[in-house]
Amino acid sequence: xxxxxxxxxxYKRVLLKISGEALMGDQGYGLHPPTVARIAREVKSVHDLGxxxxxxxxxxxxxxxxxxxxxxxERTTADYMGMLATVMNALxxxxxxxxxxxxxxxxSAIPMDQVCEPYIRRRAVRHLEKQRVCIFAAGTGNPxxxxxxxxxxxxxxxxxxxxFKGTKVDGVYDKDPKKFADAKRYxxxxxxxxxxxxxxxxxxxxxxxxxxxxxxxxxFSLDEPGGFRGILAGQGTYTRVQG
Length: 243
Known about the structure:
CATH class: Alpha Beta
Helix content: 25-40%
CATH topology: Carbamate kinase
CATH superfamily: Acetylglutamate kinase-like
Radius of gyration: 17 Å
Strand content: 15-25%
Number of domains: 1
Distance between the termini: 32 Å
Shape: globular
Number of helices: 8
Largest sheet: 9 strands, mixed
């Protein structure tokens, strides 16, 4: 526990949302163990501050339901395959966190008792209170909903104070900063602006759910070492999406 940083820690409980692609490293597919380990260390640095952390990880590094659907697969089946991919990612992150000495629970919206717990809200809250990291897997358990929507749903159910969306860039821009040198970064942006300007923070249903429950979304770079911890201590570069 950092005695110096503790007074400025703004959040007691947060949800970290990352894409499945964040776990690939420089590979084109699957899990890159050193990258997973690096992200686990970022989570540990925040956990060590006494912040309660839950996570939602996408499945796009293994299978993306929309892509499968576009190639002629029935959408519902493709989405369920994508949900199973998120369970694989969650188990990989659990292994990396436990290698760092963090007690972790994978909690799935689709029951599969041999590998993880079923989602029971009160039990998940209790895990967080006991300083365990909870990784919510299998989305909402329903097709047609993304892991962005699942993250917003779980963050609300867990009474998280913010969603931290880890991306490849250090905030929300009006256009892709990797393609356009004049791209402008927002320090803060409203939910309605994100929807109207199609800024691509999260999908529309996730943004609407966050807006309706006044849940801030902090968009930051997961590639910045110490970035997650720094923002919790009131430092760093990020965009805050709020009302």
